[in-house]
Structure formats: C-alpha cells, structure tokens
Design a protein that fits this description.
Jelly Rolls, eight-stranded mixed β-sheet, mainly beta, about 450 residues
Length: about 450
C-alpha cells in the first residue's frame, strides 16, 4: 500500500508538465499560483494555473522570453507567434491572486507558429485546450514547449519553471516524490566474478631536474707554444678636436655694397589749417513721411442700433449611447465602440453602420465629449477618430488598469467628417456597463 502511494505521488508530479490523460475527465476548477519563469539566466514572476495536474502559463510571458511576438484575435479565436529579430525578456502577468480555487474557462483556438498552423498536444498526442482567465490566455506548458522546440523543467517545491533550447542540458528535474518507508532487508547475494584488468594508464609527467653533481678532477696542462701572428686590427676612431688657434690678422677693405631697398613710408604729418568756407550747396530732396502720431482719444458712443430678430435658442447637436452592456474584443490597433442609440436635434448629423460612426454635414466649431464605463479594470486606452485620423487632444493613454474613460473639449469639424470612438492598446475583452456604458455628444457652437 505504501509503495503504491509513492508511485501515485511521482505520477502526479510528472504530469504537471506532461499533461498526460490520467484524469477521467477535464476538471472544472483549478488552483492559481505565482511562478518564476527562468530563461537564459533571467527570471520573471508571473501568474500560473494548475488543473488536472497540468501547468498552464500566460502565453505572453513565455513567448516574449523565448523571442516571439504574440498576436491574439478574439474575433477569430486564434493566436499567432512570430519569431523576432532580437529576443525579449519575459513579460510579467499579474492579474489573479495566488492560492485561489478558480472556475476554469476553456477556449478552443487555432494556434499558428511563424504562419504555420500547429496543433497543441499532450504526451499521448491528444489535442489540449487553453484557458481564458481574467482577459489572459493560458496555454499548457508542456504542449507549448514541445511546439516551440524547447525543454521545460518544473520545480514544484520552489514553484520555478526553467526553459531551455531543445538538445541543451536540461534544467533542474521536477521535485522528487516523498521518500517511502524503509523495506525489509533482503538476503545477501553471491559474490560476483572478478572483472577484467583495466588498460595500462598513460605515462606520468617527467620528474624535476636532479641536483648538480660534484666537480670533476683537474685536466692536464695545455700546449704552451706561441700561436701564429694575428691579422692587422681595424683603424681606430678619430681623436678629439685640437684647441682653438689664435685670431688671424684683419683682411683688406671690401668693395662698396649695392644700393639698399626703398624704406617704408613715414608716419602721416599733422593736419594743416582749415580752408576757406565753400559756397552753399543745392537744396536737398524732400524727406520721407514721419511715423504716425499716437491715437487720439476715443469719440463719444454712438446711438443704439435697432434690435435684431430673436434667435431660435437651440444649438444643433447629437448624442449616441450604448446601453446594452456589450462585450468588445479590443485589439492593439483599435476597436470601434458601437453606440446604436442615436438622437439628433436636426438633419445636420447622421449615423452610419450599426452605430459605429456619425457624419457631420456642416463645418464649424463643435463641443465634443465622451464617456466609457467597463465592469472591470483593464489596461486599455481610448481615443476619438475623425475621418480615420486620431485627434490627440481627446486621447487617454493609460499606464495602469482602469474602468473609466472620459474627455471633452472644442474641435473644428468640416462638412462630411466622420466621427467615431475607439478602445486600443491591448489584446483582450472589455465588457461595458449596462445603462450608459458608453456615450458620445457633439454640439455646434460656432461656424
């Protein structure tokens, strides 16, 4: 019984990465945790889920860490991974609290790797489905690692996932199962036969040089006869210069020299006395007009004019709303917020499509305001588009999750301009509040 329990524990630990079908059916809930993803010595903390003994991790964290760009289409339910020129570090995903029992939401998707559709399968070749939790796509780690050609090692005790290239030395193995109780001692076996002698080892290194020996006996005297005369030696170096001699007698007078060059001009002399006064010159031309003088005092107020016709008291305007609590699949490049409920003061405005955009028929200055309310906080940004171009004075770029977006101000619109409202900058789903989940208003205040 104890050996069977130890075997079961080992199988459960191994299946946390392998995803083999030990469970009779898919679980409806899983346990959340925080795990460390380690790639090439870089470690990042991120969310993870364990269900049916399978480890699920956010695809963004693993893809970025292993040099892939991620694109998710909620409309087509497909995820694409494309190789980048340079690697990135793992992206932390922090959306769910650890040690929570979570109701699982499985999602059937199409998975593409560098443009080629690829099946995500477990060790038995069975197709596995990812989880979609808190606007984040979680994929089974072993199936994803096999698809990317990676090795994966899971340390359950330290909650650490180590990824490496296929064929490289594997990381730390999964945590060993608990040690079972010591079994009964077996009988002593027979002594085995003596093994064959090993091969002769390599020759050792040369030893150090020995000490110098004692001096040998003195040799016999050599031949003392004179040798032959040597060759003439080379010429010696020049001697030092002699002392300076006495001064000689003065020479004869030389011939007259040539005439020298002309000297420089001398300095200017002092000014002479003033000459006699000349005759008057002719009259000059008329000068230019002078600058205008300062303005005179204001004149008296004129009589009051006749009263003009009475105004209508109504400025042209329109409003559009979304009150249905719509679910919007937001993409990085932007998704239009539909507002099918449309109200206008006159025919100066019209709605196009299913409340996707609104046309202005008269040029002028307009007061524009909008508001978006979601049921949960997300990392989305909002903006106003006019005839396909972003108007930056109404753009809200968020650095943290939020559930409210609103902006207002004056904008110059031309006849025929088309106005729409978008959410952008994330891959995920935004659920609008019921009631006034989204609204857009335009009021013309001047031509």
């Amino acid at each position: 019984m104890k050996k069977a329990s130890a075997l079961l524990a080992a199988l459960l630990l191994a299946s946390a990465l392998g995803g083999t079908a030990f469970a009779a059916k898919e679980a409806k809930s899983g346990m959340t945790l925080k795990t460390s993803v380690e790639v090439s010595g870089t470690t990042t903390r991120t969310d993870a889920i364990i269900a049916d003994g399978v480890l699920y991790v956010p695809i963004r964290s693993v893809a970025a860490a292993t040099g892939y760009k991620t694109e998710w289409s909620g409309v087509n339910k497909e995820v694409r991974l494309d190789t980048l020129a340079g690697g990135q570090t793992a992206t932390a995903v922090d959306r769910i609290a650890p040690s929570q029992q979570l109701e699982l939401k499985r999602l059937e998707i199409a998975f593409y790797l560098d443009g080629k559709r690829t099946a995500l399968v477990d060790a038995d070749g069975k197709v596995v489905q990812p989880l979609f939790q808190q606007d984040t796509l979680f994929l089974p780690m072993r199936a994803l690692a096999d698809a990317l050609g990676l090795t994966a090692s899971w340390n359950a005790k330290e909650k650490r996932l180590t990824l490496g290239e296929s064929g490289a030395e594997a990381g730390s193995p999964a945590e060993a199962p608990a040690k079972g109780e010591k079994g009964d001692k077996g009988d002593k076996g027979d002594t085995g036969a003596t093994g064959a002698a090993g091969a002769t080892g390599a020759t050792g290194a040369t030893g150090a040089t020995g000490a110098t020996g004692a001096q040998g006996p003195k040799g016999e005297p050599g031949d003392t006869a004179a040798g032959p005369k040597g060759d003439k030696g080379d010429r010696g170096d020049a001697g030092e210069p002699g002392a300076k001699g006495d001064q000689g007698d003065a020479g004869a007078k030389g011939d007259k020299g040539d005439k020298g060059d002309k000297g420089d001009t001398g300095a200017q002399g002092p000014a002479g006395p003033a000459g006699a006064k000349g005759d008057p010159g002719e009259k000059g031309d008329k000068g230019d007009a002078g600058a205008p003088g300062p303005a005179g005092p204001a004149g008296p107020i004129g009589a009051q004019g006749i009263q003009g016709p009475a105004g209508t008291g109504l400025l042209p305007g329109m409003s559009a709303y979304n009150t249905m609590g719509s679910m919007i699949a937001v993409v990085l490049g932007g998704t239009t917020v539909p507002m099918p409920t449309f109200v206008a003061s006159d025919s100066a405005f019209s709605v196009t499509g299913a409340g996707q955009s609104y046309t202005v028929f008269h040029s002028g200055w307009y007061y524009l305001s909008y508001s978006i309310r979601s049921t949960t906080a997300v990392m989305s940004s909002s903006r106003v588009m006019v005839s396909g171009l972003e108007r930056p004075e109404f753009t809200l770029v968020n650095q943290q999750s939020q559930s409210r977006w609103q902006a207002s101000g004056l904008v110059r619109l031309n006849a025929g301009d088309i106005v729409s409202l978008q959410l952008f900058g994330m891959m995920g789903t935004v659920i609008l509040e019921s009631g006034q989940g989204a609204s857009l208003s335009l009021i013309k205040i001047a031509d």
